[in-house]
Design a protein that fits this description.
This protein has about 130 residues and is of the alpha+beta class. The chain is about 20% helix and about 40% strand. A hairpin with a 2-residue loop joins strand 6 and strand 7. The radius of gyration is 16 Å and the shape is elongated.
Amino acid sequence: MTGNQHQGGATSSYTCPRCRRTSHHPIDAREQYCSACHAYIDQLMAFQVYVDDTLVLEDWVIVPDGQPDAEAHAAITNQANADGKPWRIEVHDPEAQRAYVMGSSTQGIADPHPINLAEGGRWAEEASTWLGYR
């Protein structure tokens, strides 16, 4: 959850999903801004790597300039392939309220496909809750 609610529904704090710091400043909370990262929530993109449905890496980047740790992602997915375990990478874009999923299964590599968070579904529901949309 990115913000805490108090009586009356106003957000009283904001916890940055990237650095996990919490600001209790009302403007930071209202605008979902992290002064440590110098970024608003809509400037962040999350990369999550799962092996056998277990989260093994979460990598937040500030877009458009930030880059995910592709070497770490490749090392994890290559090891999963070598071990015969399925893996997936989910890319969550808070600004667009979309998640992109790619991965492997027993049938091979699955092509990346978008998930519109507004359309629902298990991953969309988890992503929406996790990103603070619900």
